[in-house]
Design brief:
The chain is an alpha+beta fold and about 600 residues long. The protein contains 16 helices and 23 strands. β11 and β12 form a beta hairpin.
Length: about 600
Amino acid sequence: MRLNRLTKLGAACAAATLALSACTAEAENTAETPGASPTPGGQVQIAETGTFSSFNPQSAAGNTEINHRIAYATHSGFNYVDNNLDIVPLDEFGTYEKVSEDPLTVKYTVNEGVAWSDGAPVGADDMMLAWAAASGRFNDELRATNGTVLSGTRYFDHAGSTEALALTGLPEISEDNRSITLTYSQPYADWETAFGSLTDDGGIGVPAHIVAQRAGLADEKELTSLIRDTPAGNVLDPAPENPRLRAVADYWNTAFTARSLPEDPALYLSTGPYIVEKIDPGVSLTLVRNADYTWGPRPELDEIVVSFIQDPSAQVSALRNGSVDVISPQPDPGTLPALGAMGNINLHQGDQLAYEHVDLNFTGVFAEDSVREAFLKTVPRADIIEETAAQLRPEAEPLDSQVFLTDQAGYEDAASTNGSDGFAEADLDRARKLLDGAAPQVRLLYNRDNASRATAFKLIEQSAEEAGFDVVDGGLPADQWAAQLGTDTYDAAIFGWTASGVGVAGIPQVFRTGAASNYNGFSSPEADTLMDELLAETDSQRRDDLQARIDRLIWDARYGLPLYQVPGLQASADTIEHVEYMPNSTGLWWNFWEWSVAR
C-alpha cells in the first residue's frame, strides 16, 4: 500500500494509507571515489523490478510502484516527502495555505508560468479534475458486503483513499483560475498531504484540457462546469448515470494505460523535470530533461534509463557488468552475498514501509469464515520468511498486524491483542478439522516473475494441499497480474502494500467497505465507524488505539495474513553521487534531481 495512499508493491496492487510510521534506515557506504566530484549532465541507468504500464498511477489499474516512480519524475506538486519522512513544500510550483482552522479551509495556488509540456498552463481546471477523481463526490454505487454492486454508479476508479477529499465541499475557484479553496466538513489531521502531494498523488495528475477534449467536451472550462453543475452522488438515492461525466471518467480511468510509448504525445505530458522519450515494452523506459521545466529542483542528469529486470541475480549481474548503475532487487538468497563480494558500489539497506501479505476474497470458496480460517491455518509464514526475507535480514519475523509495521509505536500492543497469535504457526490438523472432509479449490493469484512471491506460492500450495485444499496456480506475468485484483478470477492473492510514511489514509483506502483498493470485499460497519474517527483524530496515542481496534476486527474476520515487513536492499555504483536510502514507496527516487555522475 502506499501510506496516505497505498501502492501495489513491486509491480502493482492498490493504494491507500496505512499508519506506517518512519522506518529508520541508514545508507551503508562500502566504497567511495576519493576526490570525485559530480558532473552536470550525463546518464544514469536504474533497474526496477516492476514493469511500467500507465501514465495515470492514480487510477486503480495504474496504481503500481514503478508507475508512481515515473510519475514522480515527470510531474510537479505542492510538496514531497523526504527521507526523514518530513513534508517539504515545493514553493516554486505553488503554495498551499491553511486559511481557517474552523472550519478547516485550505487554499491551493499554482504559480504563474507552470505548464504542461505542450504549453498549456496548469491551473484550477486541472486541480478540479484531480479533486473530482480523488473525492469520490459523484459515486453513488451501493455494494453488498460481498462486493456485489446493488445499484448506482462508480465514475472515477481512483486507487487511493477518497476519505479526505470526501470531507470537502465543491471547491471555490479564484478569478485568475490558478487557485482552488477546499473547505472540510470536519477536522482532518493529514490535510497537508490530502491533495496535490508529489509523493502521494504524483502531483496534479493528468491534464484537464486533454481529458475534456478526448471525452467530447469543448475544453477544460466545460469540464470544470460539468464538475460544478453535477450533483453529489447519494447511495441512498442513486441518480441515472450521467453520460458526459461517464465519458470523462472512462477516459481518466483507461486512456493513459500504455506499455509502449503512445503515438499521441498528449497521453504522456509532463509538468516535472523529465519527460518520457522512449519505451521498449517490458524492457526499458527512457526519461529525458523537460526543457521547459523551471518551477522546481533542477535535475543534474540529462537522462535516466529505467530497465525492467525481475530476476534479482540479473539485476546484480547488470550492476557488476556496468549495464546499470542502480538496482533495487527483491529479496533473494544470493543477492546480499553477491553484492558484498563486489567492489566499487554503495549498499543502501533498511526496513521498508512495506509488507507482503495473503488476502482472501470474501466471495466464492471463501464466503464462509470456517473455510477462510482453514486456509490461513495452512500458511507457513515462518518457512516463507526463511526462504525470502531472512536472506536479507536474518532476524526477520512474521508480521502480526494488518495496520502497523514492526518498528511502529503501536505494533506491540496491537499484535498482543488482535488474535494474531492463533496464526503464529501453520496448524494443518486444525485446518483439516475445519474442512471436515471437504476439498475446496483455491486459485491463488501472484506475480510469477517475482521470485519471493513465487516461493511463497509454492510453500503455501504444498502446505494447503496437505491439509486438503486443491490449490490452482494463478500466477501471471509482472505486467498482467495486478489488473486482476478486484475481479472474480481468483480466490486469494499474494502481493505487497507500500506507503509514503505520512498519515493514515491508507487504512480506509484498503479496509473501508466498498473502497477502491478493497479488492476482496471485506466489510465491517464497526471498522468503518472507527475509520471515520481515525481520520479526524490528531492525538497520536488515540490514533494508535483506534488502529489497534480496527486491526482486531480485521483479524477476527479472517481477512488474510500479513507475511513480513519487506527488507530494503538497493545498491549503486560508486560513480553515482547522492543516491540515498528511502523506506517509503518512492524509494531511491525521492531525490532523483540530485543524482549525478562523478567525474
